[in-house]
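Per your request, structure below.
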């Protein structure tokens, strides 16, 4: 089921998310809905708070055509290691539509998470995958990519999002 994506500013996007205690059928359904929502948007990542659920759950798939899709569901993800090397990517966010800005982050990260089958996974990511997983984990900590920007740019984007929300409310 495709779920509505919250648009910034929304207080739920700034909350620290709770760990997932166990992989239940509800968590599996939530992850499936999140993947469907992410692909439909379309996006390369989505965090549970973006659909109003304050749980530590993210989904991502940074594969590019003609590669096969590689949907990842990460429950309680944590960054174990970050490279000293940095990379800058033009980031966007499904909760901040049509706004992009360069953000500098570690070029590589090692992440541990629980998979939907309850197993513990660990993998090192680089490039877009590294940027995306860091961006999504930030969401679980109430942080948005615009929090890395200067105050003027952040205010400008926030005002655009407030206007977008007013326009959408009028159309509803």
């Amino acid at each position: 089921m495709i779920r509505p994506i919250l648009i910034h500013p929304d207080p739920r996007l700034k909350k620290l998310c709770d760990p997932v205690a166990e992989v239940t059928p509800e968590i599996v359904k939530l992850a499936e809905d999140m993947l469907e929502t992410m692909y439909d948007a379309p996006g390369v990542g989505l965090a549970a708070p973006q659909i109003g659920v304050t749980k530590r759950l993210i989904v991502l798939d940074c594969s590019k055509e003609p590669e096969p899709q590689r949907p990842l569901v990460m429950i309680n993800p944590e960054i174990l290691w970050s490279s000293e090397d940095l990379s800058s990517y033009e980031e966007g966010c499904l909760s901040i539509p049509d706004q992009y800005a360069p953000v500098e982050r570690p070029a590589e990260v090692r992440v541990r998470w629980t998979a939907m089958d309850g197993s513990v996974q660990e993998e090192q990511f680089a490039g877009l995958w590294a940027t995306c997983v860091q961006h999504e984990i930030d969401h679980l900590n109430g942080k948005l990519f615009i929090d890395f920007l200067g105050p003027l740019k952040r205010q400008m984007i926030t005002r655009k999002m407030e206007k977008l929300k007013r326009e959408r409310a009028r159309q509803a």
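The first strand starts at residue 45 and ends at 47.

Regards,
D.
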